[in-house]
Amino acid sequence: MTAAECDGVPTRRPDLGVPRLVGRDRDLSLLDQALDGRPGLVVVAGEAGIGKTRLLHELQRRRPETALVAVCPPFREPYTLGPVVDAVRRLADRVAGLPLTGLAGALRPVFPEWAGQLPPAPEPLPDAAAARHRLLRALVELIDALGVGLFVVEDAHWADETTLELLLFLRARRERSPRLVLTYRPEDVRPESLLRRLVAQAGVTRLEPGPLTTAGTADLVSSMLGGEPVSVEFAEFLHGHTDGLPLAIEESVRLLYDRADLVCEDGAWLRRDVAELDVPPSIRDAVLERTSRLGPAAGAALAALAVLEGERSPALVAEVAGIPLPEAENGLVEALAGGLLHEDRDARVGFRHMLAARSVYHALGAGERSRLHRRAGEALDREPVRRVAELARHFREAGDPGRWAAYAEQAADHAISSGDPRTAFGLLLDLLTGGAVRGAAVSPLVRRMPLYAAPGNGPLRELVTVLRETAAGDLTPEERTEATWQLARLMFHVGDVEAASVEMERAVPGLVQVRPVAAVHAMMMLARPVGTTRPAAHHRSWLEHAGRLIEARPDPSPEERLAFLMDRAATLLVLGDPAGWAAARELPAEGETPGEVLQRARGFANLGEAAMLWGRYDDARRRLDAAAALAEQHQHLRLRDLVTATLAHLDWLTGGWTGPMEWAASALDADEPVLRADALLLAGLLDAARGDHRRARELVRAAIAVERPRGPVDGSRDPSAVRARLAIAAGRPGEALAATDAAWRLVEAKGLWLWAAEIAPLRVRALLEEGRVGEATRAARAFETGTCGLDAPVATAARLLIAALLARAGGDLAGAAGHFEEAGAAWAALPRPYDALLAREAAAGCRLAGGERDRAVDVLREVFDGLTGLGATGDADRVRHSLADVGVRIGARVGRPGYGDRLSPRELDVVRLLVEGRTSAQIARVLGLSPRTVEKHVLSAMRKRGAPSRTALAVVAVESGDVPLPGNAPQPPTLTG
């Protein structure tokens, strides 16, 4: 129709078409530029309805590469790698004949329909992270074999974490990877999502399409009307009511068209009088009014599609809608003509916009939604390839607990085999809190749950509630025993140790009869002297019970026996019993099955921590290094990370502060609560030594706020000891006493005075500074009596320090100086150089006060050099001022020059091998280093390059020119977008 033909009142209206892409020429040009350069990541960010998907569809139409397009649905529990798996299925219907290695066998659980075309499945890996990494490598190999040149991920804010890890993995491969493009809504990204790290990397091209102008609004509407002009008044009206949001403009025009509120006058399309025009306040309202004007068949088809989500065949839509196929096809044609749907190359239909799909879905009544979900589940259950996570979702919403549970459990198994335990935990938690599993079936399901993957204590407390209700329900004695045992385990996990012990003791007699292995485990948990005020003898009694039970069993497995022996030795040491050292020496050296290797690694880690509690740091390092090596070699990555944290603290104690600083910086945002708390505490200690006491207090408070804090059994990692140290330094003895009150009462109740080695000197000093000399003396005597018979170097040093404090408070400056010097020597022997230097500083202070200026000045000079060398610049400044007060000027210590922000030669060697895709163990073998030393170099390089992960370090190192691409490939210039 021409303008001349529409003068006056039109006799007919043109059909509304799909709008062309308007106002995005610059964005498309930037996208092409970015993709024509070297492989990288292009991010398209913006609010819902801004046109991100439309922009990418136009991009794909223009690009020559084979595109893999993954669309992330808004599922409550994301399906592990679901968007990518679905995208691969759409791209290829078979993989036979592709150049795949044996690694691709890891894809069998993900693509069961291709099991006959893929290599045999590899052996299971013991660690979730290792299994996930292998699956990602296999998936990348498949993507390469399919010739994918452009990898698009839409709505990445809804992506599961494993899909985001895949993108990070591809980013690290650089020249060997397809071009990567993703869209997301910044406001919908979870705080802990890997997406935040991904889009913050260096070299990312970022586009943020803005709203359309008034002219752009007119162009978009005109393109829907076959190119007919649109009046300026109408364009301004629409722009004002939609803020230039393309989807809102389109939906408003379609609604006005459906209402016959568009008229053509004087050669241009415009709206009726403003007073007669009612534009809905939201896109949702516009969509719902439009769908209400469609016929019954179209409405039924739209409802079915909204429940199904994604693109679906007309036959499936008809089955779910409950209408004949011809009727459904007619309805779909009507909805397609109305611009609500689109059709793909396989004749499948889906909503053009997710907002429209969600609007239709939420407008359905609860009963109708339930019926449609049931039909969807039953229809999809008959499909050749069953997506169990999707089936679980449909049957959950249908109110069918039996089938929901069956498919959710299968989906959880799939997630675990894919190295995604967090998704598995969420799926099973949903079953339990949603009431799909009840009674005797609850405990076996809890036993299967990867509790270590829980995102904090909140979900675990939900499980505690479920198990408590289960244990109080109608169960057989055996079932009640099992439920009580699982309840007690969970209560231990969340820190309710006193109550957990009561439940555990209730469960033990029944476990002895039906599950002796679990009974030994329960007894060993009761033997652990943490979290309760019960005396040490109570825990020792349970340790002996467990020993008798393990010996009475006719055939304990090697793994069970090894686990008991390892735990027994560590528990004895934590109980302050020297017999633990003999038990540790008698541990079997053999044991190479996967279960035995895990028990050896775990046992060495526990023994290393126990040795730290005693102050036997050389022994601790040997055992922790052994644990780290086993964990790295056998890919127990979580255990490796926990051991790395312990080694970082040991390095801090023994004077190697560079590694701890780098580790703490890298672990401050760790997912594991214990790692995060340890990093916060260590960073607080380092800040205090550098003189930033305000920030140190903030970090320690944050460490305590983490849901799984440490306590006095953790020795120098007890936050109460660190709080007291900071309070004493700030001249606030009352705060130091308040910080240590609970820990001191616990030690008194249990009689485990070894645990007080860190807090006893601090508490005695605080009491003395408060003028409570009698209490200080009694505290000192209690600690002396409780530890004098132990060959525990840390307790010896603490006793000498306490003696010095008491002598100084009593005015015996010479005696105090001697005791401080003895304490310094004892600390140095451990070695704990920082505490040794502080003790020597205190001795020099006593010498000064006693008139021995020259001797004191010599010591203070040495202390200044020592503190400066460690990096304790705040303490060094204090010593400088002490020297200045007696007329001695001293400058900063000059050491050998460092590399600053540049990578050292050794760091460059490590990063070069890291970029090639080698593990820490492989790098260690190549360079002749230990895996722990390799990790130190990796952490140092991460800190210098501001990289949050190893993958990010590899990307940044190549982009910055630190190391060449593998194979010395040339590097094209970087495009900034």
Can you describe what's shown?
With 977 residues, this protein is mostly helical. A hairpin with a 5-residue loop joins strand 8 and strand 9. The radius of gyration is 34 Å and the shape is globular. The two termini are 42 Å apart.
List the helices and strands and how they pair.
Elements: H1 25-36, E1 41-45, H2 52-62, E2 66-71, H3 82-91, H4 128-145, E3 148-154, H5 161-173, E4 179-184, H6 194-199, E5 205-207, H7 214-224, H8 232-242, H9 246-258, E6 262-265, E7 268-271, H10 283-292, H11 296-308, H12 314-321, H13 325-337, E8 341-343, E9 349-351, H14 354-363, H15 366-380, H16 388-397, H17 401-417, H18 421-433, H19 442-448, H20 457-471, H21 477-494, H22 497-514, H23 516-527, H24 536-552, H25 558-574, H26 579-585, H27 594-614, H28 617-633, H29 637-654, H30 658-667, H31 673-689, H32 693-705, H33 719-729, H34 733-750, H35 759-769, H36 773-787, H37 793-809, H38 813-829, H39 833-849, H40 853-870, H41 873-885, H42 905-915, H43 920-927, H44 931-945, H45 950-959
Parallel strand pairs: 1-4, 1-5, 2-3, 3-4
Antiparallel strand pairs: 6-7, 8-9
Helix pairs in contact: 4-5, 5-45, 7-8, 7-9, 9-10, 10-14, 11-12, 11-13, 11-14, 11-15, 12-13, 12-15, 15-16, 16-17, 17-18, 19-21, 20-21, 21-22, 22-23, 23-24, 23-25, 24-25, 25-26, 25-27, 27-28, 27-29, 28-29, 29-30, 29-31, 30-31, 30-44, 31-32, 32-33, 33-34, 33-35, 34-35, 35-36, 35-37, 36-37, 37-38, ...
